[in-house]
Design a protein that fits this description.
Length: 309
């Protein structure tokens, strides 16, 4: 669905609510030319207790932390970002939506050094269903291991959500789609499993859950952290510092992606090799069902994760 097909008409930009089509920047903005922006992706869920933002405080904190390596000063406090987001969702009359805050260096000079380029900040919200398709949540997706490697944390900060870094994700994801797959898996420079282009990955073997550790050049995903906590509370052993080889993907009992957009998405095939029985596995299903029970507030557990409108 394109933006012009959705019933959204307002964006918050640099402290003001503006019409969607008026949220524009100069073509010589630093962020456009050098990828010097940081962003977040979060969700507001339509819950039994009303619209609620999932782990919003953690998303806002990561936005500000992502800006630090680039010496980017966001000209608004976390509280102002939160207030603007809540009002923006209310103005759009949305009960559930995806939320995209972004901060980036704007227009002043065009050297690689940002110099006096101002930091611009914007927030957009819009309806967005299952990122990889509704069918994917139940039946899983087919993925390929990309020929593109994940950049190392010694090269560029991997724990910052930086706009320019997602060229790496685009290359991997588009390679997969050209070859008939729904998504990619990216290896790190050592050849171990890192993550998906926009997702963290989990492996299940003998009812033990493994996910690559932060040393594997992954993003410390907020949904990843949530799923780790949910899985442990369900009684599973979770190794969240794992180093996984490419070959272990093919011999896994189950695989699944997590992310704000992907939520909990099973993986049924890797490079045309069937994973487990070729469908959503029982561990994935239990975690996925618990995750949606939590985010839809059909349980009182984890209430501290939610910001209600």
């Amino acid at each position: 669905m394109g933006f012009d097909e959705m019933d959204v008409d307002t964006i918050w930009m640099d402290g003001e609510f503006v019409d969607w089509e008026d949220a524009q920047i100069h073509v010589l903005s630093h962020g456009l030319h050098y990828g010097t922006g940081v962003f977040e992706g979060a969700r507001c869920y339509d819950t039994e207790e009303g619209p609620a933002l999932f782990r919003w405080d953690e998303h806002v904190e990561r936005l500000f932390q992502s800006a630090k390596p680039y010496e980017m000063e966001i000209d608004h406090t976390p509280e102002e970002i939160t207030e603007a987001t809540l009002e923006l969702i209310e103005r759009q009359n949305l009960e559930s939506c995806y939320i995209r805050p972004i901060a980036f260096y704007g227009y002043d000079s065009l050297g690689v050094a940002p110099g006096d380029c101002p930091t611009r900040t914007a927030i957009a919200v819009w309806p967005w269903g299952a990122y990889l398709g509704e069918d994917a949540l139940e039946n899983g997706i087919e993925v390929m291991v990309s020929s593109w490697r994940k950049h190392a944390s010694s090269q560029i900060p991997t724990n910052a959500k930086t706009t320019g870094l997602y060229v790496n994700s685009l290359l991997a994801g588009e390679e997969a789609r050209r070859n008939g797959y729904a998504e990619a898996i990216v290896l790190n420079k050592e050849g171990n499993v890192a993550e998906g282009p926009g997702e963290n990955i989990f492996l299940v073997r003998d009812d033990v859950i493994y996910t690559p550790g932060l040393s594997e050049s992954i993003l410390d995903g907020i949904t990843r952290d949530s799923v780790i906590e949910i899985a442990r509370d369900l009684g599973y052993t979770v190794n969240d510092t794992a180093s996984l080889s490419r070959g272990e993907l093919n011999t896994a009992d189950e695989l699944f992606f997590t992310g704000s957009a992907a939520e909990v998405t099973p993986i049924r095939k890797v490079d045309n090799v069937e994973i487990g029985n070729g469908s959503r596995g029982p561990v994935t299903e239990e975690i996925q069902q618990k995750f949606f029970e939590v985010v839809e507030r059909r349980t009182d557990e984890y209430d501290e994760w939610f910001t209600y409108i």
